[in-house]
UniProtKB/TrEMBL annotation:
UniProt keywords, alphabetically: Membrane, Transmembrane, Transmembrane helix
Keyword Cell wall biogenesis/degradation: no
Species assigned in the record: Microvirga lupini
Annotated InterPro entries: DUF2232
Record lineage: Bacteria, Pseudomonadati, Pseudomonadota, Alphaproteobacteria, Hyphomicrobiales
Protein name listed in UniProt: Putative membrane protein
Presence of keyword Magnesium: no
Transmembrane segments: 29-46, 53-85, 105-126, 175-200, 220-253, 273-298
Signal peptide: none
Length: 321
């Protein structure tokens, strides 16, 4: 029953981190963003059942503190995605030689993208009661706030005519699920990595720490991206799901592109300078460079690009894809 006690503790901690958002302060917002970490840690370090207990306990606590809808939202958006990815990370089976074959980290990244997209759409459907017009109104309000904030920061709002402003709002409203899924993939990937490092330091991580630079998503991830782009041309929630899948898998491929560059530069002189310059360029270009990294990641998965441009360390059998 040890997993029950740890799950209860993690659920209460995660619920507390979530509930402080009502304070509406920068510190509260920062703590709120850390809410999935306790669920990830207990799921990876004790048992995935601890994560399920944490989701239930945290959801009940939030329902009592804030509202039943908030409690359900906590379970759906914060706890269950963290539990699911932890569950996948600890999947393994004995290999022919008796060694343990763990779930490949590349496939785990693909599932991170799928989880992010599905969570974004599920949250939208539940929050609007399945009313797509209300969903559109919500995305428009987000887009309008974003456009106003951008032009207020640059001081160019006064020179923007009403028609151009309306066109920009319509474009960003259409891209809201796309961009939200991109951001959620990044957050989930970072949180999973950080939680695994914490559990590894405590010597409770059952699987060996995978060499992340060697991750390669399966070719089927590219097919899902193509399907998402096709689905995005439709209307209603189907189109929104397509936008979310497109954004999520493009970001996942961009992360794979980053991993490939980390892999290709290992042992090279000036590696630190090259990687630092790359991250500075990503920041300066406001993520535009991520498009090129995504294309590199797609080529890496579908064409085996890293194998074609040079030798790379042979991955251990636990990470074979």
């Amino acid at each position: 029953m040890n997993f029950v006690a740890t799950g209860i503790g993690a659920g209460l901690v995660s619920a507390l981190l979530t509930a402080v958002i009502v304070k509406a302060t920068p510190l509260a917002a920062m703590l709120y963003l850390l809410a999935p970490i306790p669920v990830l840690i207990v799921s990876l370090g004790w048992d995935h059942r601890s994560g399920l207990v944490a989701a239930i306990v945290g959801g009940l606590a939030i329902a009592l503190i804030l509202s039943p809808l908030s409690g359900f939202g906590f379970a759906l958006i914060t706890a269950l995605p963290a539990w699911w990815l932890s569950y996948l990370a600890l999947l393994g089976r004995p290999g022919p030689d008796g060694t343990m074959e763990w779930y490949p980290v590349g496939r785990l990244l693909a599932w991170t993208a799928a989880t992010a997209a599905l969570t974004i759409i599920a949250a939208g459907v539940i929050s609007t009661g399945g009313d797509y017009s209300a969903f559109e109104q919500n995305t428009r309000e987000v887009a309008e706030a974003f456009v106003n904030a951008q032009f207020a920061a640059t001081g160019a709002e006064g020179g923007l005519d009403a028609e151009t402003r309306e066109q920009l709002i319509a474009i960003f409203a259409r891209l809201t699920t796309f961009l939200s899924a991109q951001g959620f993939v990044t957050v989930l990937a970072i949180y999973l990595w950080a939680a695994a490092r914490i559990v590894l330091a405590s010597k409770r991580l059952p699987r060996p720490w995978p060499p992340v630079p060697e991750l390669v998503m399966p070719r089927s991830a590219a097919l899902i991206l193509i399907g998402g782009l096709i689905l995005a041309s439709l209307g209603g929630f189907a189109g929104a799901l397509g936008m979310a899948l497109s954004g999520a898998f493009l970001m996942a491929f961009a992360l794979q592109g980053l991993a490939a560059i980390h892999d290709r530069t290992r042992g090279r002189s000036g590696r630190s300078f090259l990687l630092s310059a790359l991250y500075v360029l990503i920041f300066v270009t406001q993520g535009i460079l991520m498009v090129a990294l995504a294309l590199f990641g797609i080529a890496d998965s579908t064409l085996g690009l890293r194998r074609r441009i040079g030798t790379r360390p042979t991955p251990p059998p636990t990470l074979s894809t």
